[in-house]
Amino acid sequence: MAQAAYEERPRRRGRRALVVLVVLLLLLVGLLVVADRVAVGVAERAIADQVRQEVAKQDAQSSPPEVEVGGFPFLTQVLDGRYQHISIVLREVRGSVQGDAISLPRLDIDARDVRASLDTLRSGQGEVVAERVTGTGTISYDSLAALLDRPGLKLSEQGGKLAVTAPVDFLGQTFTITGTADVTVGEQGKVSLRFADLTAEGLPDVPLARQLLTNYARSISIDVPLPELPFQLTVREVRPLPEGLTVTGDATNVPINAAG
């Protein structure tokens, strides 16, 4: 019996040691995770400040940038000086274009394969460069309609097209115009709206009425005056969506900070 008790005590001590080791490892992992998340917060604030300076440098305006650094663990990215993915949100983006330029209520920027040394993040001096940047912003249909400045005109998305409805007076009667626009990206990233084949139910099919529709379509066919986008973004695609007209731009090898 004494021999069995003697053998049991070392086994218990071994189990206690294993439990202590597991607890210590869990604490160590927890501390590393906390340190990793704290480092992310520091980096996000540093990058947000760098982005704010770069936006101002490019004669654009926005609310303070919201930055989120992706990828885990973060500390290994710091040591490597390369970050997988950085998301930046700019709100109320306004550019250097004056007059009737439309502001973007929100611009979502996705920066991939970002190069930034630890010294750059710590001191604010040096370059933060993204190999590829894409940006997506949505223009509300109300702001587009206000730009067209036609009483009663409404814009919406129908079947993937930009649709218009508007009242028009002809020979003392009011008719409702309907139709869609061709939405394209032209030279220098300009977004073009071209309305054609407008119709109005009940409108007499006479030359004067047809000319009225043609003139109206011509008057609301415009190049949308977008603000100059930050980070050298050039508009590549535009799509009517239920929430508004969405524009997408991209750029490569882009500095996303004001290098010191």
TrEMBL record:
InterPro entries reported for this sequence: DUF2993
Entries under Pfam families matching the protein: LmeA
Name listed for the protein in its UniProt record: DUF2993 domain-containing protein
Tell me the domain of life: Bacteria
